[in-house]
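Quality-control log, excerpt.
Job 1 of 2 completed; input and output follow.
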Amino acid sequence: MGTRSIVARAWQALCPAACGGAPLRVLELGAGDGTLLLAVARQIAPAWPAVELTLLDRQRIVSPATLAAFAELGWQVTVDVADVLDWAARPPDTAPGAAASSWDLIVTTLFLHHFEGAELDTLLMAIAARSQRFFACEPRRGWLALTGSHLIGAIGANAVTREDAVFSVHAGFRQRELTALWPAPAAAWQSREYTAGLFGHCFSTRRAQAHAWAQ
């Protein structure tokens, strides 16, 4: 569903282009092998020469080649191997804005729909407490996406992938569901929830007092 371009556009909208100063601190939750954000980095690196990126996943599957490719772009990358709910349970540093617990941007793609109920609430609460900006790109729950998920076998997808695709749509989001779940006063955050491409559903939010990064 063109996830790379969707993430890149959202990133650039949330964070105006860097003009020196401290590096942008970014955390990706459920990062997998890191190749999605590498593709995003290659697209936006000319405007973002200084980024400190942390890739969090419960498996260590980021290859040395991927880390080297980030380094070639001038991005500093740390791999954090942890379950995301364990990350959410870590006690945040008590100092406001401390580097250990505060991120300029937290990103997640095709990840939130794996959680529901209390787990999703816990995860969103931890993200809100630790970030200035947050962006999520998820499957959109709807008839068009569901129809598409049943047809991916026509392009050679195996049985597991077909089953996962259908599950993802059923577990996806629509309308303003993520906005309603966001655990912070509406006046304190500027949020937008919207469709993207044929099958994507996005949630983008920033603290109302978050500074323009170009300053």
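Job 2 of 2 completed; input and output follow.
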Amino acid sequence: MVKSCLDCGEPIVGRADKKFCSDQCRNNYNNRLNSDTSAMVRNVNNILRRNRRILSELNPTDKVTVHKEKLSNMGFNFNYFTHLYTTQKGSVYRFVYEYGYLPLDNDFYMLVVRDKK
């Protein structure tokens, strides 16, 4: 019985458990298989990278207050962050990697940096 390559359908020569005729076909098959997941992860990572860049540009020191409109105008997406940090007083900071922000009154945000190394 001759096995066929899972990617191109060509006959496979070699080991009995071989599934692909070449490394290129193996890569094509796996890239196609993972493309939906990869696209979603890539899109989320792009949003997180943009958010981090914006926070870093607006906060050259370690602490600054910025209006929500300025963040929005720069393309900041408030729905994407990496983690939350709750202080002992109950304030909840949202972080994008080491850059955090805390909502204040009147649509202002305090931007902070944690462990800047």
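Post-run check on job 2. Residues 23-58 form the longest helix (36 residues).
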